[in-house]
Automatic annotation (TrEMBL):
<dbReference type="GO" id="GO:0006729">
    <property type="term" value="P:tetrahydrobiopterin biosynthetic process"/>
</dbReference>
<dbReference type="InterPro" id="IPR001533">
    <property type="entry name" value="Pterin_deHydtase"/>
</dbReference>
<keyword id="KW-0456">Lyase</keyword>
<dbReference type="InterPro" id="IPR036428">
    <property type="entry name" value="PCD_sf"/>
</dbReference>
<dbReference type="GO" id="GO:0008124">
    <property type="term" value="F:4-alpha-hydroxytetrahydrobiopterin dehydratase activity"/>
</dbReference>
<dbReference type="Pfam" id="PF01329">
    <property type="entry name" value="Pterin_4a"/>
</dbReference>
<comment type="similarity">
    <text>Belongs to the pterin-4-alpha-carbinolamine dehydratase family.</text>
</comment>
<protein>
    <recommendedName>
        <fullName>Putative pterin-4-alpha-carbinolamine dehydratase</fullName>
        <ecNumber>4.2.1.96</ecNumber>
    </recommendedName>
</protein>
Length: 105
């Protein structure tokens, strides 16, 4: 079962994500990041790839797309806060972003 991240686990699990540009959402136990792509096709292609993993893991992002930008919020509704699934999906998003665009982070 998915559990809410404990205080100890948070530091080790979340810090590497903060280092790649994720941040805490004000007033919510959630993380967010804004991804910028060269154009809409690249943004939507990345979203499509992320969507397949989200479906596979039954863990879905809150996200918003405007042209070449995708703003993502991750949290786990069933535990009313962050779980390891959010970190796992965030890492996958970062990995696909770096891979798709051929740029490291
Ligand atoms: C019924 C289904 O398993 C749940 O609604 C899943 C689907 N995707 C989900 N996504 C997220 N981000 N949090 C959840 O708690 C969640 N629960």
């Amino acid at each position: 079962m998915t559990e809410r991240l404990s205080e100890e686990t948070r530091k080790t699990v979340l810090q590497p994500l903060f280092d790649t540009g994720w941040g805490m959402v004000d007033g919510r136990d959630a993380i967010c990041k804004s991804f910028k792509f060269p154009d809409f096709t690249d943004a939507f292609g990345w979203m499509s790839r992320v969507a397949l993993w989200a479906e596979k893991w039954d863990h879905h992002p809150e996200w918003q797309n405007t042209y070449n930008r995708v703003t993502v919020t991750l949290t786990t509704h069933s535990v009313d806060g962050l779980s390891t699934l959010d970190a796992k999906l965030a890492r996958k998003m970062d990995g696909l972003f770096a891979h798709d665009e051929g740029r490291g982070q």
